[in-house]
Specification:
Blueprint (H helix, E strand, L loop, with lengths): L4 E8 L5 E11 L6 E11 L10 E6 L7 E7 L3
């Protein structure tokens, strides 16, 4: 089964080897028929520990690394 790949913006890199990535998606509101933005934060593993806040990165699903981390950064390295 293929692994999911998402794209988002890094909002935090304070933890060691971990970045927090905010992924936004656009959905249609069922009643108002307007396009609205929904976002979710994912903790992703950054082995090189070089990704800065504000950078656009792609993350890929992986095995659970810790309680919150089950994604790894695949592109967007410095």
């Amino acid at each position: 089964m293929p692994k999911r790949i998402l794209q988002g913006v890094v909002v935090s890199n304070k933890a060691q080897n971990t970045v927090v990535v905010k992924v936004e998606r656009r959905v249609k509101h069922p009643l108002l028929d307007k396009i609205i933005r929904r976002s979710k934060k994912y903790h992703a593993h950054d082995e090189s520990n070089t990704i800065e806040v504000g950078k656009v990165v792609r993350i890929q699903e992986c095995r659970p690394i810790s309680k919150l981390k089950s994604w790894t950064v695949v592109s967007g390295e410095a």
